[in-house]
Write a structure and sequence with these properties.
Layout (H helix, E strand, L loop, with lengths): L8 E6 L8 E7 L2 E7 L12 H5 L14 E2 L8 E2 L2 H19 L4 E5 L5 H14 L5 E3 L6 H10 L17 E5 L3 H4 L1 H12 L3 E5 L16 E3 L6 H14 L5 H7 L2 H11 L6 H8 L3 H13 L3 E5 L1 H4 L4 H14 L10 E3 L6 H6 L6 E2 L3 E2 L3 H11 L11 H9 L5 E5 L3 H4 L3 H10 L2 E6 L11 E4 L8 E4 L4 E5 L11 H11 L9 H11 L8 H7 L2 E2 L43 E6 L24 E4 L1 H6 L7 E6 L3 E8 L7 E5 L7 H4 L16 E7 L4
Parallel strand pairs: 6-7, 6-15, 8-9, 8-11, 9-10, 11-12, 15-16, 16-17, 21-25, 22-24
Antiparallel strand pairs: 1-2, 2-3, 4-5, 4-17, 13-14, 18-19, 19-20, 21-26, 23-24, 23-26
Helix pairs in contact: 2-19, 3-19, 3-20, 4-13, 7-10, 7-11, 7-13, 10-11, 16-18
The structure holds iron/sulfur cluster.
Length: 694
């Protein structure tokens, strides 16, 4: 129960919203949560917090919370409330029936970046060890999978290089495709602090974001690039660095693979990458691109921070590798104040990737195709493991429509609302013989489910989250789970019902197992977390207290790999019928699909998704400020209220996806990153026209 009153005691825990991972004191009166107070001892936030973490926790006791398991034989039948044992038994029996009828690999599971490391680890373990398939994936697929791929290919580790506090030693900060003051507010404030101290800011973004208006700073440099032009931009920046002699030759000679550097240098020196040639494609003036390259390369410490505006493109992985190229070419790696820093979206998106959620990697990014790796897990888990990578989420959808994939266990992700091309996703979900949804609310995905297993919020469980700076923070139970079980207990019971033994008494035992099979977590344990407060992995014999800044003397792959990053324009192009480009993002007071923020009783959280449109584009279509408009793409259409905005550049419109009615993903396309299938949410050609139909 959450009520007002004077607190009597408190529990230190971690925010369940964004990848900053702020620590809070959950202040209690008896078993009632009175308030969430940012904790000064928090090593990611030092006592700061944003409006979401501080005030948006009312959803935890909202009347919509699921408290009873439910089952049904078909999605057109009514739900039947049952006891846990019956629901879990039903789910396990149906999973086995599907496997008997359609084969071992006709089933799969999706882990959640909202759940703890321990819970995520158990879901992928259930899929691999109990179901015998590598058909496991995570919602990171639709956000930062290109980060995992791109950073591993270039720097050898699928994670950001720095701690957040490192930004206070940056001289030039390049922000690409991220809006930290809205999406990562506490880090956004830290960044602003450094800007007020005199650091230079460069922003590459189609919109004029708030960071550009930070008071009392040096003149920021905005590159208002066109959605889809990221690779062209990072190549143009690199071209200037190479052709104007701005490289850090000593770093390159000592730390980078000479063959790959030579190939990259020859590629990037080609005049076709020059800002003067690519300016029209990029959408920013050539001289401004040159200035940006000179500022970044010439600064003592140059740091790059990027977000989903980099990853959610058909060339998301290429851009991530291009960013790593920039950092290596200028020697901006391996010390405080520099680095390549993905701003992770969800509270535990880093952790869900670390824990082996991807179909090709076991925990710690260890390949399933490596027999020695498999052998160590086979010994620990007591089963023989499949050696072929499984299906990614889009592959599961396609296989479901083709009749090859028949059952799915989804923990804590609303794929029907959050994944692109809603029509395709719904068709896939409708094709399943069995959909098991474990969530705190009856979400959009649950409409297609046969089993509902009530989930638990971060207030109701023990565990850990890993934030965007690889910091493992403790999550501590504040109140008993509303439905009687923590998520890891539900997964454990499902594994047991499938006949696979799992007998953990506490998440600390799961972490002990994670440490035993994951070299980068070898030194992580609950007692060590208590002692140190938090730990930034890798934590092992070489780094017993963790590692705030990675790649100081060498890369995990030895020499850094500079990769040729060919610009391939997206197939999603404007045309006479669809003359504008739509891109998407978030606002400060809402979070992703809004399942939590929309269920917090406070006026701050009310609102709607709107379409931001430049006044010139609005005038050309006779669209008034506030008027409902139809947004049509090649995939579908939806209706939103228009908002005239000077933040937009002409030709580009913008919306958020926090409310189910907005239908943002009805109009996004099937395009995805070539390497990881991360959807291209950020580029959709649309037509916008006035309507009275709302
Ligand atoms: Fe929570 Fe992120 Fe806000 Fe911190 S910045 S309070 S982690 S939403």
């Amino acid at each position: 129960v959450i009520e007002q009153g004077q607190p009597e005691h408190s529990v230190i825990t971690t925010c369940a919203y964004c990848g900053v991972g702020c620590s809070f004191k959950a202040e209690m009166k008896g078993d009632q949560l009175v308030r969430m107070t940012p904790w000064k001892g928090g090593q990611a936030n030092h006592g700061h917090a944003c409006v979401k973490g501080r005030f948006a926790f009312g959803y935890a006791t909202h009347k919509d919370r699921l408290t009873k398991p439910m089952i049904r034989d078909a999605i057109d039948q009514p739900w039947r409330e049952v006891e846990w044992e019956e629901a879990i038994g039903f789910a396990a029996r149906r999973l086995r029936e599907v496997q008997q009828q359609h084969g071992t690999h006709s089933v799969g599971g999706i882990t959640s970046s909202r759940c703890t490391n321990e819970e995520t680890y158990l879901v992928q373990k259930l899929v691999r060890a109990a179901l015998g398939t590598n058909n496991t994936d995570t919602c990171a697929r639709v956000c930062h999978s290109p980060t995992g791929y791109g950073l591993k290919m270039t720097l050898g580790e699928s994670a950001g290089t720095q701690d957040f506090d490192s930004v206070l030693q940056s001289d030039c900060i390049l922000v690409i495709g991220a809006n930290p003051t809205d999406a990562h507010p506490v880090f956004g404030s830290l960044l602003r602090k450094r800007l007020r101290q005199g650091a230079q800011l460069i922003v590459a973004d189609p919109r004029h974001i708030d960071l550009l208006d930070t008071p009392h700073t040096a003149e920021p440099l905005h590159l208002p690039l066109r959605p889809g032009a990221n690779v062209a931009l990072v190549n143009a920046l690199a071209h200037v660095i190479v052709t104007e002699g701005l490289e850090d030759k000593e770093f390159i000679a000592g730390r980078c693979s000479p063959e790959e550097y030579a190939a990259w240098r020859e590629f990037i020196a080609d005049p076709g990458h020059a800002p003067e040639v690519m300016s029209a494609v990029i959408g920013a003036p050539a001289e401004r691109i040159r200035d940006a390259a000179r500022l970044y390369a010439g600064a003592g410490n140059g740091a790059i921070y990027y977000g989903l505006g980099v990853t959610e493109h058909s060339q998301g992985s290429t851009t991530v590798m291009g960013i790593a190229n920039l950092a290596m070419a200028t020697g901006n790696i391996g010390r405080p104040g520099v680095g390549v820093n993905p701003l992770r979206g969800q509270n535990n998106v880093q952790g869900s990737c670390d824990m082996g959620s991807f179909p090709h990697e076991l925990p710690g990014y260890q390949p399933v195709t490596d027999a020695a790796v498999r052998a160590s897990f086979e010994q620990a888990w007591g089963v023989e493991l499949h050696g072929e990578p499984g299906l990614r989420i889009p592959g599961m959808f396609d296989a479901a429509i083709e009749g090859r994939f028949k059952a799915m266990y989804v923990q804590g992700e609303d794929i029907a609302q959050s994944d692109p091309n809603t029509q395709h996703v719904e068709a896939a979900l409708r094709s399943l013989d069995l959909l098991i949804v474990q969530d705190i609310f009856l979400n959009e995905t649950a409409k297609f489910a046969h089993v509902i297993l009530p989930g638990s919020t971060f207030l109701e469980k023990n565990g850990t989250f890993t934030n965007a700076e690889r910091r493992i923070n403790r999550v501590r139970k504040v109140m008993p789970p509303l439905a009687g079980k923590e998520d890891w207990q539900v997964t454990q019971e499902l594994a047991q019902a499938l006949g696979y033994p799992m007998h953990y008494e506490h998440p600390s035992e799961i972490m002990a197992e994670i440490a035993s099979v994951t070299p980068s977590f070898a030194g992580v344990s609950y007692p060590r977390l208590e002692e140190l407060g938090s730990i930034q992995w890798p934590c092992n014999d070489q780094h017993p207290s963790g590692m705030p800044v990675m790649h100081g003397d060498s890369f995990p792959i030895g020499l850094g790999r500079m990769v040729v990053t060919e610009f391939m324009p997206t197939s999603e192009k404007v045309s006479e019928a669809f003359p504008l480009l739509l891109t998407t993002g978030r606002i400060l007071s809402q979070y992703n699909v809004g399942a939590q923020t929309r269920r917090t009783e406070n006026n701050v959280w009310h609102g709607e998704d709107v379409l931001e449109i430049h006044p010139h584009d609005a005038a050309a279509r006779g669209i008034q400020d506030g008027q409902p408009v139809t947004i049509a793409s090649r995939t579908g259409n939806t209706v939103l209220r228009a908002e005239h905005s000077q933040r937009m550049q002409p030709g580009v419109v913008y919306t958020t996806f926090h409310f189910p009615h907005s239908g943002a993903n009805v109009i996004t396309t099937d395009n995805s990153d070539w390497a990881t299938n991360c959807p291209e949410y950020k580029v959709t050609a649309v037509q916008v026209s006035g309507t009275s139909d709302r």
